[in-house]
Amino acid sequence: MTIAFWCVLAAALMPYLWVGIAKFSTRGYDNAAVRDFEDRLSGMPKRAHWAHLNSFEAFPFFAAGVIIAAIGGADPARIDLLAMSFIGLRLAYGAAYLANLATLRSLIWIASMATVVLMFTNIPGKVA
């Protein structure tokens, strides 16, 4: 399995890192009423929850980029590099979210999405 495919697994699991921080960095977590608990979050735990949600939103685009680039014949080493960059940027994105660094977070988000766009643009020939 390629590094890029392992990165798809890492990206699929990443939302649970952020939600774990949201749930266990504050008191009162109630697994029987999770939605009520999430509504009561504030500060850093709330931002961790938002990072959790955004990680789910970013995942399909990334997974599609890796898979389409792989079946489209893109250079595996380049796709591996882009996938690892995406994972690193998404971890930095979550850290910026937790730290409430909105402008930096937005710039990191743009960079992470650019890695996926580059995956699509590195497919040789025409896509039929």
SSE arrangement, N to C: HHHHH
CATH class: Mainly Alpha
Cα-based radius of gyration, to the nearest Å = 16 Å
Number of domains: 1
| Share in β-strands | under 5%
Helix content: over 70%
How many helices does DSSP assign? 5
Shape: elongated
Level-2 CATH architecture: Up-down Bundle
Parts with pLDDT < 50 across at least 5 consecutive residues: none
What value does the average pLDDT take? Answer: 92
Distance N to C terminus: 26 Å
According to DSSP, the number of beta strands is: 0
CATH topology: Four Helix Bundle (Hemerythrin (Met), subunit A)
CATH homolog superfamily: Membrane associated eicosanoid/glutathione metabolism-like domain
Profile the largest sheet: none
Derived structural class:
mainly alpha
